[in-house]
Amino acid sequence: MRPPHAALLLLFILAYFRGAYSNGSRSRFTSIISFGDSFADTGNLVMWADPVLPGLLLKNLPYGETFFGHPTGRATDGRLVLDFIAEALGLPFVPPYLDKGGNFSAGVNFAVAGAPAVTLQYLQGQNLIVNPPINSSLYDQLVWFQKLKPSLCKGRQGTDCFGSSLFVMGEFGANDYRSFLLSNRTVEQATAYVPQIVDSVSQGVEVLYMLCTE
């Protein structure tokens, strides 16, 4: 049986962060900037949901009950991997972008539960079911980042602004494939779109790099 490589890599990353900074040494990272879907969302979907998705289950227990004691918008009863990374680096939990009262001095989270790699318009153009039907794709998250960038940088440019920021490009793709399966498409039909989904993520990384270095 082949080992779950993604899970092993994740454990290695967490062990690295915890080991590197558990001895009290100062982290070189002063902020975390995150993109992704429900694996990283710390509250954006819930803040977006009213009144679009009034029955959203993430607003209720048991979500959040084992650590925070109340729902936080995370798709878990406790913390996310992103939360453990922040803790290991001695940084606060990364606030969601849609929290208009949030303090983004130590990071901001653009991830949205249910976010696809490709745009909502593209998926709907293929007559696919999209749930939730909102503009939360990687492209849309990068637009948010571009809008917030001036307030994050405060006049600084490129690496002078983001040189000490840890960028987390979270999981993308699962919700794209889910749209195909929810629409009664075959696995083979969904598989045919793998190159396009991979290209969307690759292009997103390139755009992010450009935005951070210009």
Keywords, please?
SGNH_hydro_sf, 44% helix, 214 residues, three-stranded parallel beta sheet, mainly alpha, GDSL esterase/lipase, glycoprotein, hydrolase activity, acting on ester bonds
Write the layout of secondary structure elements.
Blueprint: H1 5-21, E1 31-35, H2 44-52, H3 81-88, E2 107-109, H4 120-125, H5 138-153, H6 159-162, E3 165-169, H7 174-182, H8 187-191, H9 194-213
Parallel strand pairs: 1-2, 1-3
In short:
With 214 residues, this protein is mainly α. 44% of the residues lie in helices and 6% in strands. The protein has one domain (5-115, 131-171).
Describe the structure.
The protein has 214 residues and is mainly α. It has helices at 5-21, 44-52, 81-88, 120-125, 138-153, 159-162, 174-182, 187-191, 194-213; strands at 31-35, 107-109, 165-169. A 3-stranded parallel sheet has the order 2-1-3, covered by helices on one side. The radius of gyration is 18 Å and the shape is globular.
Output the strand order for the largest sheet. 2-1-3
Overall pLDDT: 88
Q: What is the 3D form?
A: globular
The rounded Rg comes to 18 Å
Distance between the termini: 46 Å
Q: Helix segment count?
A: 9
- Helix share, percent: 40-55%
Topology order in helix (H) and strand (E) letters: HEHHEHHHEHHH
**What characterizes the major β-sheet?**
3 strands, parallel
GO molecular function: hydrolase activity, acting on ester bonds
InterPro entries: GDSL, SGNH_hydro_sf
Signal peptide: 1-22
Keywords: Glycoprotein, Signal
